[in-house]
Amino acid sequence: MQIPTLTTDRLILRGFTQQDVDALHDVLAERDVHRYFPLTDLPTREQVEKVIADQLAHWEKHQCGWWAVLLRENGELIGWCGLQFLPEFDEIEVAYLVGKPYWGKGLATEAAWAAVQFGFQSLGLERIVALASVENGASQRVIQKLGMSLVERLNIWGIDCYRYLMQRTALASPTRLQ
Questions:
Q1: Global confidence as pTM
Q2: CATH T-level assignment (fold) for domain 6-170
Q3: Three-state SS at 58
Q4: I need a surface site. Which of 67, 104, 139, 141 has the fewest CB within 10 A?
Q5: Could you tell me how far CA 26 lies from the centroid of its own chain?
Q6: Quick one: which of 152, 142, 135, 150 has its CA closest to 176?
Q7: Which is it for strands 159-167 and 127-133: parallel, antiparallel or unpaired?
């Protein structure tokens, strides 16, 4: 499958390649980046290779997955973002991770918004969900800026989370990205 490339004002979202292993490993090895994820251990290079291979397979199977997120100004890989099929809910989730130097700059929101637009406009999805640890206020703010609505609190993968939802009809929400 040809993974589409998306561009925003400051970012390029493109399919991962095996040449991204070292850069993604560096991002994932940063302290606190995995604090709110089910697996908090720092990944090995081999595990990062598997993450990339799994995402490429996910694209083949579901026509969506994670993109490598790069800065437009210099091509630096700063994280990942995309749409992931969640078999636990039979839904598509928007998810993101950016390296610590890029926290608080609106880049996760910018990438996530591009992914949401792709899901609704290109894939024809009717709804997209997001999950955030109840302790991760920054991720909750990203989700809220997208215009997603809180649906429930649940425990999944051993983490207490909030589950948010956005319907295609809310795509033009006036609260988005304010």
A1: 0.90
A2: Aminopeptidase (3.40.630)
A3: helix
A4: 104
A5: 17
A6: 142
A7: antiparallel
- CB distance 38 to 158 below 8 Å: yes
Which DSSP letter does residue 19 get? G
Query: At CB < 8 A and 24+ separation, what contacts does 138-146 make?
Result: 138/103, 138/104, 139/36, 139/108, 142/96, 142/108, 142/109, 142/112, 143/112, 145/109, 145/176, 145/177, 145/178, 146/94, 146/109, 146/112, 146/113, 146/116, 146/176, 146/177
Q: Where are the domains of the chain?
A: 6-170
- Convert the pLDDT of each residue in 109-163 to its tens digit: 999 999 999 999 999 999 999 999 998 989 999 999 999 999 999 988 888 999 9
What type of residue sits at position 16? F
